[in-house]
Amino acid sequence: MSQTEGRSGGAGPFTTRLTWHPVEGGTAVWESRPARKRGLITVRAPGEPESRPRSADGVSVARLRRLNTVAALAFTVGGALFALGAWVAQFGSSGATGAWIYFAGGLFFNTGGYTSLLQAINAPRPEAGGGPPTARAWAWWSYEPYRIDWLSTFVLFVGTLVFGINLLSSLLHGLSLQQVNRLIWAPDMVGCTLFLISGHLALLEVCHGRPAVRARDLGWWIVAINQLGSVLFLVSALAAFTRPATGSPVNGDIANWGTLTGALCFSAGGILQLFERP
């Protein structure tokens, strides 16, 4: 990249912000989340008091809009279905209806997780010399664990797949107490933990290091609300453990309400994500 001296910032081994001085003068700033979600970098030309965004090319913008819309709607609908499933479990019948609602919601979460990963894989990269981000060749998969956005979305996607084991197992009948804890509760705990790890990485990305409050940043609100949902999911999973001595969950009310409120957080995050677009 043609430039004079520059600097980078981020969290640990991850780079989330790059600042450099293009050869024609001025300052260019690339930030991981805005580049991935909005397809832009900011550039301040010599003598200008404020930075101006440079948008990606038309191919990248159209691609990012489609991916962002799919991911946002998937998490919105998936969260709504999870909330409905928890409502049915708390106030409705205890039959298979709630399990099937959860399963349908899980499919939407799978879609949202993979689409988020695709967005990280196919995020436009800035041109040499501080030019606007440009499209890359489309890819359905890549392995880039040194990128915090890739790692966060990959862990999220794996978490949705682990939840799928939990949801599939919940459709089975005649399970013993040990099988319930092994096939339903254990994957639930693993999935919640992966969601928390993904959310923490996303916070590090949007804050460029130590988590902090960035109330004027829409991306921060999306990440923070989703992380709150992950915490509530974890509380729900802990309360759903089936005690061998009694054959009943630790606290069914907390399990259902934790799932319901956590799912609503993901729905709210999905709605906000519709506005975080190029």
Characterization of this structure:
The protein is α+β, with helices and mostly antiparallel strands. It folds into two domains: 7-54, no CATH class; 58-273. Helix content is 58%, strand content 11%. It has seven helices and seven strands; from the N terminus they run βββαββααββαααα. It has helices spanning 32-37, 58-91, 97-121, 148-169, 177-207, 218-239, 252-273; strands at 7-11, 14-20, 27-31, 40-44, 52-55, 125-126, 133-134. The strands form two sheets. A five-stranded antiparallel β-sheet has the order 1-2-3-4-5. Helix 6 runs antiparallel to helix 7. The radius of gyration is 21 Å and the shape is elongated. The protein starts with 6 loop residues before the first strand and ends in a 5-residue tail after the last helix.
Radius of gyration: 21 Å
Fraction of residues in H or I helices = 55-70%
End-to-end distance:
24 Å
Number of helices: 7
Biggest sheet statistics? 5 strands, antiparallel
Topology:
Layout: E1 7-11, E2 14-20, E3 27-31, H1 32-37, E4 40-44, E5 52-55, H2 58-91, H3 97-121, E6 125-126, E7 133-134, H4 148-169, H5 177-207, H6 218-239, H7 252-273
Antiparallel strand pairs: 1-2, 2-3, 3-4, 4-5, 6-7
Key attributes of the depicted protein:
278 residues; 2 domains; alpha+beta; two-stranded antiparallel sheet; five-stranded antiparallel sheet
